Amino acid sequence: MAAKRLNMRKRYEALTRGMGWETTHQPMDKVFPYDTYEGIKIKDWDKWEDPFRLAVDSYWKYQAEKDKKLYAIMDSFAQNNGQLNLSDARYINAMKLFIQGVTPLEYGAHRHYAHLGRHFRGEGARVACQMQSIDELRHAQTQIHTLSHYNKHFNGMHDPWHMSDRVWYLSVPKSYFEDAMTGGPFEFITSVSFAFEYVLTNLLFVPFMSGAAFNGDQATVTFGFSAQSDESRHMTLGLEIIKFMVEQHEDNLPIVQRFIDKHFWRAYRVLGLVAMMQDYMLPNSPMSWKAAWDIYFTENCSALFDDLGRYGLRMPKYHEVATAEAEHLSHQVWATFYNYGHAAAFHTWMPDVKKMDWLSEKYPNTFDEYYRPRFETFREMEAAGERHYINGLPQLCQVCQIPMVFTDVLNDPTMVSRRVSIHNNSKYHTCGDGCRDIFEFEPEKYIQAWLPVHQIYQGNCGGSEVSEVLDWYNFQPEDGGEYVGSADHQRWQEWKGTAESVSDDRTQAHAS
Fold it and tell me: Exposure of 194 by Cβ count < 10 A (0-12 exposed, 13-18 middle, 19+ buried)?
């Protein structure tokens, strides 16, 4: 008698769950040493609900169809000199920051999900992590392939991996990700799959990719939305792992809540870069950072944690601070990069009158009171030939590694937020209660942080002069500084037939 054809569910189980076995030559705890030391207790791995539900053959067919469409659009974009259809060359600086700061994290996620695919003892979790590992590798590749077209025409994209390992502002995303990778497997998957992918990723991939469309960048729009369909699966994995852990044993709840509190805050701090890109680096901004936060965090996460409340989980600690900071975050981060633009591999500038009016409209409670006067002063200094740069090095937060630029938004937005912790008779500074709590829970981890400013002062970053440090970063002189008069700006003017002297362009920009 012919064997019965398996239905889709049974076939999937045979190709995933049916591939596992109990070890005999060595105990399971020795073969899988990492998934117990965090204190997470798993009674029954078979209770895992697979969020991907794709066997390998189906996965490759599904992704191949997406890639055919993606690369067809990318080829068309390149062949038709799509860079000429951008709203303005300023926009490319957001893409420079994206490939320097985000793309290396995608590759790091690929490597560590592959690690989890070996070290979770449950077959369902292993398969899910292996699938996400492949997804993350694909994301890194498509981003590199898309942005390689811009590398032909603009500066600052020539060595993102070297920069990721060394540059001061890229230590912010890198330290967040390495913090997660050096935790246990459950901490990592909570950090990336839940705190970032489920709670916060829409703030990166949805409004920002819409911004790419508003600025004529169809290639980035395409890779963004191609990745977003994968992100929906990743979000499902994040939600599944949270529910799985808290359902397995009551002792898991406080550990999971601590993971959520910590990595929400760490991932949120990284998104300060995205807030700046959203409000200042897009010539045409379809949505402010504040509006995106209200939709994708305040509304969505309130509903999410209403659902998770039945498991005993609550909203991440200090979420109210993050919501209050939405009024200030992008302005404070942009002002910082404007002052340190000579040490960045992208250009900065002061917003013109049109952009400032847009910011006033989107931030009626804060922009005109706290930030417009400062920016107008900077513009006046530019017009007088005194473009402002800070040559000193700032104090960094011991945890998130961001300069101390954030203010006490709940009490006095004009005062810098700073916390001090004492460990082994030494002082350590953090940028607020969120980072302070993370530091004080496991200080031995964070006192080892490789802080760029400390390393520069110790002479470990190429030398004692700014030029030597920039050489160590592998920056070229044309990569950073003021946008007006830069090589990118002049090239754009030549393409558009609007070449003028730099001084005339500055005058017209300020007059506008």
Answer: buried
Give the count of domains, the chain: 1
Rounded (5°) CA angle 246-251-257 = 55
Place of tokens 């690929």: 110
> Can you tell me the distance from the alpha carbon of 167 to that of 160, in angstroms, rounded to the nearest whole number?
10
Average pLDDT value for residue range 472-500: 91
Cα angle vertex 380, ends 374, 381, to 5°? 90
Q: Is residue 213 part of a domain?
A: yes
Please state the pTM of the whole predicted model: 0.92
Q: Which residue's structure tokens are 């990778």?
A: 181
Q: Does a structural domain hold residue 9?
A: no
pLDDT digits (tens, 9 = 90+) for 236-263: 889 999 999 999 999 999 999 999 999 9
Domain containing 222 equals 31-495+502-511
- Mean pLDDT computed over 69-76: 92
pLDDT tens digits, 333-344: 999 999 999 999
pLDDT category of residue 500 using cuts at 50, 70 and 90: low
Of all helices (H) and strands (E), which one includes residue 31?
Answer: helix 28-31
Q: Which of 58, 65, 47, 60 is nearest to 15 (CA)?
A: 58
246-254 long-range Cβ contacts below 8 angstroms, 24+ apart: 246/311, 246/312, 246/313, 247/47, 247/311, 248/40, 248/41, 248/42, 248/43, 248/44, 248/47, 249/40, 249/41, 249/42, 249/43, 251/39, 251/41, 252/39, 252/40, 252/41, 253/311, 253/312, 253/313
pLDDT band at 499 (very low <50, low <70, confident <90, very high): low
Domain annotation covers residue 7: no
* Mean pLDDT of the chain, nearest integer: 91
Position 2 in a domain: no
- Residue 497: the pLDDT is 86
What is the CATH classification number for the domain harbouring 189?
1.10.620.20
Other C-beta atoms lying within 10 Å of the C-beta of residue 15: 16
The contacts found for 139-143 with CB under 8 angstroms, 24 or more apart, are: 139/106, 139/227, 139/230, 140/103, 140/104, 140/106, 140/107, 140/110, 142/67, 142/70, 142/223, 142/226, 142/227, 143/98, 143/99, 143/102, 143/103, 143/106, 143/223
